[in-house]
Amino acid sequence: MNLLRLQAELVDLEQQLIDQWRLDRTASAENEDNNRDAEDRRLYGLDFWHMRECMVDGKHSTINNHARSYNTRTISRVGSATVAALSSTLPTLAILVLYFVKDMVTRLGLIILFTTIFAFALAFFTDAKKVEIFSATAAFAAVEVVYVGSTSAGGGGN
């Protein structure tokens, strides 16, 4: 009789341990979900964009709660628009800034800065070869130097 009662107590204890393990596991998962929720709230702007713009065949392109699948065409369009904006803005911005700077040493420093930004933009946003990046960067720097050489250091034309 005592043996049966001891066996029943052991089964009960085993069940309590299993229940506690499941409870701990659930609490750990909920804590992890709370951490992810906080991260998701920080990325709300991107998630809003995802829900609004990134739909495939009229359905959201969500793989699961934390991974997204985007339409390749949409990504390509955003990349092309970024490159177009950067390629038209950077040379114009460089000339505009150089126009208003009066000190020649500062102008030369800005030429170095803008040329470096231009080279990094080419390397990052295009599939250009090293020699193409070098050639385009040299041409960009040459245009800036010719502009600076043709204007007075007083911030305008002759």
UniProtKB/TrEMBL annotation:
Keywords: Membrane, Transmembrane, Transmembrane helix. The lineage of its organism: Eukaryota, Fungi, Dikarya, Ascomycota, Pezizomycotina. The chain crosses the membrane at residues 78-101, 107-125. Pfam families: DUF6594. It comes from Apiospora hydei. Residues 61-145 form the DUF6594 domain. PANTHER family: DUF6594 DOMAIN-CONTAINING PROTEIN, DUF6594 DOMAIN-CONTAINING PROTEIN-RELATED. It comes from the Eukaryota. This is DUF6594 domain-containing protein.
